[in-house]
Design goal:
Layout lengths: L18 H5 L7 E3 L41 H6 L13 H4 L9 E6 L5 E4 H7 L2 E9 L4 E11 H8 L7 E6 L19 E5 H4 L5 E6 L2 E2 L9 E3 L12 E7 L6 H5 L23 E4 L6 E2 L7 H4 L13
Parallel strand pairs: 2-11, 5-12
Antiparallel strand pairs: 1-4, 2-3, 4-5, 5-8, 6-7, 6-11, 8-9, 8-10, 12-13
The protein binds ligand MTE.
Length: 319
């Protein structure tokens, strides 16, 4: 079944995105200009639960549900229940430890197998690539999930800007290394800095975004300020936070989780209810803020858009 979820494209994204892509977007979009400016919270039918601590009354988000009708996870839960091992492995402890994190000035380098390597300041990126709102589900490999209204732009637009060479096949991402600001990086169990990777076609897929904010606000430190990846059809650990480097390569890059425990965390990490984690089932998830469990959807509900990327692949072997 084709879902028509396109709402409005107030930014001229037809100029930057191929027609077939933007008209088929299953996304709620909103011109945000610069994230967090001049926005007003509006109710569009269903009310999100517990928005009492949503940061400001002058904020607008365009959606209260995702495209499957699932309510947004409360802002409070989104910013207080986090995985960010650079601070702590305790999910409810990240937000307080991240309070003093200063994500500025911030430069992202993009290089490797590209014709036009560049270093962008976060301000340059925000100016160059129009920010839009997209509501995506985030499904953690640990069995919980959230629905989050992200603000960001397509990673593919940025990759186009640096002109990938024909030999580029993967994108490798690296988080900031700064143990003064990120005390968890003193934990010797992990090979810091945090690294992740995607196949180039996954990185260029229009659902893959670099997020610079959420709930109409600049990205909170605990969620990966000032810029993080969001790949909605993959387990949350692929969505690397606080990125300082993107490198295009011809070989599958090493990633933190795949390096530590390759039998538990594959390179692909596509959400797949039929492939269990060796220590637990992946068939259901607990939506934060809800009771009970939900059946996990193949590719986290984005199969229509992304299943074609894996045509002919054995998804049990390539987990
Ligand atoms: N990125 C970095 N640099 N460090 C991390 O520990 N955790 C990952 C991912 N990105 C992580 C990271 C995991 S396991 C998840 S589930 C998501 O971030 C959680 O994102 P959230 O805290 O914004 O919900």
């Amino acid at each position: 079944m084709k879902r028509s979820l396109y709402r409005s494209v107030p930014i001229p994204s037809s100029e930057i995105t191929p027609e077939h892509v933007y008209t088929n977007r299953r996304l709620f979009m909103k011109a945000a200009g610069t994230a967090g400016l001049g926005m007003l919270l509006t109710a569009c039918g269903v009310q999100p639960h517990d928005l009492t601590e949503t940061p400001s009354a002058d904020q607008e988000i365009d959606a209260t549900t995702d495209e499957l009708g699932d309510l947004l996870t409360s802002y409070t839960d989104v910013i207080t229940y986090n995985n960010f091992y650079e601070f702590t492995t305790n999910k409810t402890g990240v937000s307080s430890l991240a309070k003093s994190f200063v994500p500025s000035p911030w430069i992202i380098e993009i290089g490797g197998l590209v014709s036009n390597p560049k270093a962008y300041s976060i301000e340059d990126l925000m100016k160059k690539f129009a920010q839009e709102e997209r509501v995506y589900r985030l499904r953690c490999v640990e069995g919980w999930s959230m629905v989050i209204p992200w603000i960001g732009f397509e990673l593919g637009l940025l990759l186009d800007d640096v002109e990938p060479l024909g030999s580029a096949r993967y994108a490798a991402f690296t988080t900031l290394l700064d143990s003064k600001q990120m005390p968890g990086q003193g934990n010797p169990l992990y090979p810091w800095p945090y690294t992740e990777g995607l196949r180039l076609d996954e990185a260029q897929h229009p659902l893959t975004i670099l997020a610079t904010g959420l709930y109409g606000q600049p990205m909170p430190a605990q969620n990966g300020a000032p810029i993080r990846l969001v790949v909605p059809w993959k387990y949350g650990f692929k969505s690397i936070k606080s990125i300082v480097k993107i490198e295009l390569t011809d070989r599958q890059p090493a990633t933190l989780w795949n390096t530590i425990a390759p039998n538990e965390y594959g390179f692909y990490a596509n959400v797949n209810p039929e492939v269990d984690h060796p220590r637990w089932s992946q068939a259901t998830d607990r939506r934060i803020g809800e009771r009970g469990r939900r059946e996990t959807l193949m590719f986290n509900g984005y199969a229509e858009e992304v299943a074609g990327l894996y045509a002919g692949m054995d998804l049990k072997a390539n987990y």
